[in-house]
Specification:
single chain; 190 residues; alpha+beta; 8-stranded antiparallel β-sheet; two-stranded antiparallel sheet; 4 helices; 29% strand
Length: 190
């Protein structure tokens, strides 16, 4: 497997106490577009997929990536999915994706209209690679990517936790860190 990765996604999960009502995010994402809240990204539109059970929910469409309040697999959270990316070293790509996902999750968590009812976990997160040519869902990919993922997490301040395959072999390659003994705050990841 190549040590270059592209089309990486990172998902920070909402806490169980969080209100994940999707309609609340639409005006917030529209405001982000108007105010250019993510300064180095061209934010384009908001797509509503609330009608899809356990699906992508509400998507903030951008040129290079999408940000979504996603409930795939029955667990809601903020999903950052990089679409357009130059192939680059896996550690660099993973660290960048985690930081961008953390930035958006932190911004949502601090949004006055959402702050009292929205909180993201940092002790659990998921990463996926959508480019199946570079990262097929195979034991070889796991053997290559898992040590890199663990190394990036440790550099960012994570300690402990289990890393497991997040999806079955028919899905894109995905790993989930769960139960980290120590995890950084979203703000410190930005």
């Amino acid at each position: 497997m190549s040590t270059l990765l592209r089309q990486i996604g990172i998902k920070f999960f909402l806490t169980e106490e969080s209100d994940s009502s999707l309609d609340r995010f639409i005006p917030v994402f529209h405001e982000w577009i108007r105010e250019k809240r993510i300064s180095d990204t061209l934010l384009i539109d908001v797509a509503d997929y609330r009608h899809v059970p356990n699906g992508p929910g509400i998507i903030l469409v951008a040129n290079e990536a999408h940000y979504a309040i996603d409930s795939t697999g029955g667990a809601s959270g903020l999903l950052y999915s990089r679409l357009r990316d130059q192939a680059r070293p896996a550690k660099e790509a993973l660290a960048d994706a985690i930081k961008r996902a953390a930035f958006a999750a932190n911004a949502l968590q601090n949004e006055p209209r959402l702050a009292e009812s929205l909180s993201f976990r940092t002790d659990t997160l998921e990463m996926h690679v959508s480019d199946r040519l570079i990262a097929p869902n195979s034991p070889e990919t796991r053997a290559s990517v898992e040590p890199i993922f663990r190394s990036v997490l440790e550099e960012l301040g994570y300690q402990g936790g289990d890393i497991v395959l997040a999806q079955d072999s028919r899905s894109r390659f995905a790993l989930r860190l769960s139960g980290a003994r120590e995890s950084p705050s979203l703000a410190s990841l930005c």
